[in-house]
Amino acid sequence: MNSLIESKLNSFLEKHQLPSGFRRIITDHYLPLSHWIQQVKNPYPEIIGISGAQGTGKSTLADFLRITLENEYNWVVATLSLDDFYLTQAERNQLGKEVHPLLCTRGAPGTHDLEACMRCLTKLKALEPKQELALPRFDKAEDDRAPAHKWPKITGPIDAIILEGWCLGSQPQEPEQLTQPVNNLEASRDPDAVWRTYVNDQLREKYSTLFQSIDHLVFLQAPDFEAVYRWRLEQETKLARVAKKLSPGIMNEAQISEFLQHYERLTRENIELLPKIANVTLELDRNHQITSTLYRQ
Fold first, then answer.
1. Engineering a disulfide at 281: which of 1, 85, 180, 294 sits with its beta carbon 3.0 to 4.6 angstroms away?
2. Which residues touch 142 (CB under 8 Å, ≥6 apart)?
3. What is the predicted pLDDT for the residue at 7?
């Protein structure tokens, strides 16, 4: 690892509040993945999808891949999160009135502006030399879209787009699978399955187009949903530390428990199904450590 990469790595560990022991994860799993991506690159700007449940490390991996691909291979890489394309708070509140109140909460399929996401991806792929594009950002601490003047800009042409999102690659369920609630939230606030049916329909009708545009899908596989809850709590603690105040979008433990129930159905499905779909699966243990990387032929 050259001195430039080493310097970037130190900044990376500090930025993501990672212990020095995380270097083993980088050496054993992150770096080999970046080399694999470089080797399988298409001649056109490709989309690398990173999927995984709350707290599995999607944004950490995305940032590492960007740093490595830019500094080792001189790529120009745009990083996006599906979260960056959440509907605004006002739009979600309107959706909650028109369809179901649970759609006021960001996260589930149906709460994203997919048209804006697809437009952004199309523009990124077509960027000419010296042409700039602002990349949308969502402020989770405020639970709303960040002001446009705070969006970072990237200059074309680009080599790759890294798109991370918790539901990338998720598959719709059969209607009969929706009848039985998976948690208290579904049982008490969606007894007629209106919300989960809407989410499932959105997944089948609209999200599949976005998922099909992904050239290579990487899945961070949690061991179970219980581990996801614990990791999400840790993630919120980090967010609170950065914000240095209890902003509207920062949650306490009870709020996190309810929030994650919005994700539980698809999260459990993805843990079982996505290793069969993803090009690469990184398996995590209950201590949040990557134990193996599986490349699907």
1. 294
2. 247, 248, 249
3. 73
Rounded distance between C-alpha atoms, residue 174 and residue 269, angstroms = 12
- Helix (H, G, I), strand (E, B), or coil: what is residue 101? helix
Residue entry with tokens 């099909």: 212
DSSP secondary structure letters along 266-288 = HHHHHHHHGGGT-SEEEEE-TTS
Distance CA 243, CA 152 (A): 19
Query: How does pLDDT run across 15-57, given as a tens digit for each residue?
Result: 888 888 889 999 999 999 999 999 998 888 999 999 999 889 9
CATH of domain 3-295: 3.40.50.300
pLDDT at res. 206 = 95
pLDDT for the residue 13: 87
pLDDT in tens, 117-152: 999 999 999 999 999 999 999 998 889 999 999 999
- Torsion, CA 270, CA 268, CA 112, CA 188, rounded to 10: 160
pLDDT above 80 (res 240): no
For residue 212, the one-letter residue type is Q
Contact (CB, 8 A) for 124 and 158:
yes
Whole-angstrom distance, CA of residue 91 vs CA of residue 84: 14
Tokens of 49: 């999808």
User: Which one, of 179, 223, 175, lies nearest residue 56 by Cα?
Assistant: 223
SS3 210: helix
Phi, psi dihedral angles at 148 (to 5 degrees) = -60, -30
* pLDDT interval class at 2 (50, 70, 90): low
What's the CA gap between 114 and 209, in Å, rounded?
Answer: 9
Please give the average per-residue pLDDT across 180-191, as a whole number.
Answer: 97
- Tokens 């993945």 correspond to 33
Q: Phi and psi (nearest 5°) for 224?
A: -170, 175
